[in-house]
């Protein structure tokens, strides 16, 4: 810790080398560490494949978590099965870590009939009820009051679930951030806010986002703890989220965690970061790559070797290839799906349209999918 105040310092656990690693102080077992490392590599590979897919014109849009994998994996492994996740753009991968099938996850990018949302959402806005992950709404910050509402409901019902709400540094300028933080503090709801301070909000640098000394320090104004953590240190992220979960679950209320990291790439496939990110800044953060940092320690401890890493990468590539093939086999959503999942009982005018479309599909001798 660099400052005795956790909202101003930078909490770190991962040492610079294996020699300084004290296994008795570890928040994860050796096997868990290797798992976490492989999951981070998987996320990175998935990102690069999806960006390539967008460049080939096979999907319309993609938002990567490249450089930010330690926050995604560290937080995901700290929560329990029944907890709810309210992501922003870069945390969809948590669904996979919690058992969501990869083909169905990829189908969301195609918006086809395998997609849970039947093509109704923008790509990279995945959700899955079975893994307790809600779809992001794209309008920055809107997921935060929703997460607080869900946490408040859990508390009123006497559930032990907590909600994990993600946001970027840019979202701290949104009105919804302040409304959510205030409500969470006043009603002491079991919600953990994880702000991924990746230094950029598209082309706006984080220094233009706030006049506060840190983002974590904003928590003080809302009467909750604020903790600033090294977001490229998966152990520190994991341990901090885990402690916040214990606090929330035992009725002590919310926590704001600022995870200091870096967006090592474009905001999304619609953006060209070379117009505003300097080569020097990017290079400095490459030296602190979260995957390389953990990998270096694990190699030094003898928990990993190059052959194991290569085998893991080959297996990850095989899984992605096979899931892509499976996802791309599915055609567009049925036209009749326009009428589904909105009303419990269709109003009369929509029922008429539904029946008309069904009859037209049968007359033209094609299925209601229109294919
Ligand atoms: C209310 C609102 N304003 C503006 C936008 C356009 N927009 C999309 S992403 C983004 C930047 C978000 O930055 P940040 O919250 O730091 O998250 P990051 O993308 O860096 O993970 C903006 C301004 C939006 N989607 N919603």
- Helices and strands, in order, run as HHEHHHEHEEEEHEHHHH
Beta fraction of the residues?
5-15%
Number of helices: 11
- Tell me the number of structural domains: 2
The biggest sheet, with number of strands, parallel, antiparallel or mixed sense and barrel status, is: 5 strands, parallel
General form: globular
Oligomer: single chain
* End-to-end CA span: 60 Å
Distinct small-molecule ligands in the complex: thiamine diphosphate
Under CATH at level 1, the class of the largest domain stands as Alpha Beta
Brief synopsis:
The protein is α/β, with parallel strands linked by helices and 371 residues long. The protein contains eleven helices and seven strands. Helix content is 40%, strand content 8%.
Describe what this molecule looks like in 3D.
The structure is a single chain. By secondary structure, the protein is of the alpha/beta class. It folds into two domains: 18-328, Rossmann fold, CATH 3.40.50.970; 334-371. Helices cover 40% and strands 8% of the residues. The protein contains eleven helices and seven strands. The protein has helices at residues 30-55, 69-76, 94-97, 102-110, 143-157, 175-186, 234-249, 279-286, 290-301, 306-328, 348-363; strands at residues 84-86, 163-168, 191-197, 200-201, 204-205, 226-230, 255-260. The chain has a five-stranded parallel sheet with strand order 1-2-3-7-6, with helices on both faces. Strands 4-5 form a two-stranded antiparallel ribbon. Helix 6 links the parallel strand 2 (163-168) and strand 3. The mean pLDDT is 95. Thiamine diphosphate is lined by residues 88-90, 138-140, 168-171, 174, 196, 198, 200-202, 263, 267.
């Amino acid at each position: 810790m660099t400052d005795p105040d956790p909202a101003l310092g930078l909490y770190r656990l991962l040492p610079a080398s294996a020699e300084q690693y004290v296994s008795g102080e570890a928040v994860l077992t050796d096997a868990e560490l290797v798992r976490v490392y492989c999951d981070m590599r998987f996320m990175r590979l998935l990102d690069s494949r999806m960006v390539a897919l967008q460049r080939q014109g096979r999907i319309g849009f993609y938002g990567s978590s490249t450089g930010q994998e330690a926050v995604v994996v560290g937080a995901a492994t700290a929560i329990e099965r029944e907890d709810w996740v309210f992501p922003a753009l870069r945390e969809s991968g948590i669904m996979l870590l919690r058992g969501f099938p990869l083909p169905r996850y990829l189908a969301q990018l195609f918006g086809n009939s395998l997609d849970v949302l039947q093509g109704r959402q923008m790509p990279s806005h995945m959700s899955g009820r079975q893994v307790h992950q809600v779809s992001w709404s794209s309008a920055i910050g809107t997921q935060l009051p929703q997460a607080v509402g869900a946490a408040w409901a859990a508390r009123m019902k006497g559930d032990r679930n907590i909600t994990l709400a993600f946001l970027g540094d840019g979202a701290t300028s949104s009105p919804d951030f302040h409304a959510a933080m205030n409500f969470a503090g006043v009603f002491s709801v079991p919600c953990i806010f994880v702000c991924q301070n990746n230094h950029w909000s598209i082309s706006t640098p984080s220094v233009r986002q706030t006049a506060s000394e840190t983002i974590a320090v904003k928590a003080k104004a809302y009467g909750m703890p604020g903790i600033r953590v090294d977001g490229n240190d998966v152990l520190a992220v994991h341990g901090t989220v885990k402690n916040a979960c214990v606090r929330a679950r035992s009725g002590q209320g919310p926590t704001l965690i600022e995870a200091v990291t870096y967006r090592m790439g474009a905001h999304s496939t619609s953006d060209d970061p070379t117009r505003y990110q300097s080569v020097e800044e990017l290079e400095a953060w490459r030296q602190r790559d979260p995957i390389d940092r953990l990998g270096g320690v694990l190699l030094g401890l003898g928990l990993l070797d190059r052959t194991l890493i290569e085998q893991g990468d080959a297996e990850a590539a095989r899984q992605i290839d096979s899931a892509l093939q499976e996802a791309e086999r599915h055609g567009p959503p049925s036209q009749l799906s326009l009428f589904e999942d909105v009303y419990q009982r269709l109003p009369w005018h929509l029922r008429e349209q539904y029946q008309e479309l069904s009859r037209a599909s049968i007359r033209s001798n094609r299925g209601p999918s229109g294919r």
